Amino acid sequence: MEAIDHQRVIAELEPTLRASLLARNDGPALLRFALHTGAIFAVGTMIALRVPFWFALLPVQGILIVFLFTAMHECIHDTAFKSSFHNKTVSVLCGFVIINPPTWFRYFHFAHHRHTHEPGLDPELQSPKPQNIAAYMRHVSGLPLWFSNIRTVLTNAMGRNADAFVPPKGKARVTFEARVMLAVYILIAMASFLWGSSLLIWTWIVPAILGQPFLRLFLLAEHTACPHVENMFENTRTTFTTTLVRLIAWNMPFHAEHHALPTVPFHRLPELHDAVREHLKTTANGYARFNGELVAGFEFMSRPAKRGLPRR
After folding, report:
1. Which terminal Cβ of the chain has fewer Cβ within 10 Å, N or C?
2. Each residue of 87-107: b (16+ CB within 10 Å) or e?
3. Is-contact 41 57, C-beta < 8 A?
4. What's the burial of 189, exposed, middle or buried (CB within 10 Å: 0-12/13-18/19+)?
5. pTM for the predicted model, two decimal places
C-alpha cells in the first residue's frame, strides 16, 4: 500500500465524520472521571480499613493514581470536557495528586506536539530513552520521574524556570502554580504529622511509588524506537490492548490517532482509529509484548544482523 502521511489522511476525512469527531461533550468525561476517582476512593477505603490482604491493594491503588496522568493529559488539551472550567479543574486536581504542575506540563506537552519526536526540539527527547537493561530498569522504576517532578516544582516555585518551551509570559503563571502546590503539600504534611496520621502515606504516597512503573511501561510504547520523521503515523505508536487498559488510560493507546488530530476528544478516538487504521505504520500488539521486544533488542544492539524492535 502506498505510504500516506497523517496530514493527507486527516484532510481527506469525510466532513460529516470530521465534525462528529471534533464535537465535545461533558458526559463521557464526567462518567470516566467519576469511575476513575470512585475506584481510587473505594480501594483507598479498603486500604484504610486494613481489610484482609490490604497490602495487595497498594499497587492497584497506585496504578489508579498514576494513571490520573492520562486524565490530566486529555484535560490540558481542553477536549476531555466541553466545559473549559471542568478541563481546568480536573487537570489541576490530577496534576496535584501526581506532582505534575498542569500549567507547566501544558507548555511542555504542546511543545511535544509541535515537534513530535524531533531531536533537539521535542522536550520529551531531553531525557534519552533507555538503551540497555540498566537504563531500562532505572527508567521503569519511576524514581527519575519523581525526582524530576519534585525538582520542577521546587525550581518553578523559586522563580528559576529556564525551560525553553515556557514562554516569557508564562513564567509568572508556572511560578505561582508551583508555589501554591508546594504550600498545599506542606500544609497536608504538617496536618498529618500533627494528627499522627499515616493515612495518606498508605493510600497515596506508597501506592503512587508502586504504581509508577506501570505508567512508565505504558508511556515507553508511545514513541520509543519510532523513526524521526514528520508523519505521525510513523513517529508515534498506537498499541492494541484490552478494554480495561483503554478505560483507565482514557484511550491514550490510540496515540498515533491522537497526534494526527489532537483536537479529537478521548471518547471519539476509537472512531478516528477505525477511519485511519489502514494507514498506521507503527503499532504494537500489547504493552507486555512491546516491552519484551524492546528489552530483547538490548542484547543484540551491537550485532548488525538484528534490527531491534519491529514496527508491527
Report:
1. N
2. bbebbbbbbbbbbbbbbbbbb
3. no
4. exposed
5. 0.93
* Contact between 91 and 101 (Cβ < 8 Å): no
Cβ 233 vs Cβ 279: under 8 Å: yes
Using CA atoms of 207, 208, 212, 215 in order, give the dihedral in degrees to the nearest 10. Answer: 100
What is the C-alpha to C-alpha distance for residues 64 and 211, in angstroms, rounded to an integer? Answer: 8
What gap in Å lies between CA 112 and CA 124, rounded to an integer? 7
Give start and end residues of each alpha helix (H) in 164-268.
171-195, 199-200, 206-223, 232-235, 243-248, 255-260
| Amino acid, single-letter form, for residue 269 | L
87-109, pLDDT tens digit by residue?
999 999 999 999 999 999 999 99
Place of cell 517532578: 149
The torsion angle over the Cα atoms of residues 280, 282, 286 and 287, rounded to 10 degrees, is -140
User: What is the percent of the chain with per-residue pLDDT over 90, rounded to a whole number?
Assistant: 93
Chain segment 242-268, per-residue pLDDT in tens:
999 999 999 999 999 999 999 999 999
| Cα–Cα distance, 215 to 183 (Å, whole number) | 27
CB neighbour class for 307 (10 Å; exposed up to 12, middle 13-18, buried from 19): exposed
Chain segment 109-158, per-residue pLDDT in tens? 999 999 999 999 999 999 889 999 999 999 999 999 999 999 999 999 99
Element (H, E) at 238: strand 238-239
The count of other CB atoms within 10 Å of the CB of residue 247 is 13
- C-alpha triplet 55, 58, 62: angle, nearest 5°: 175
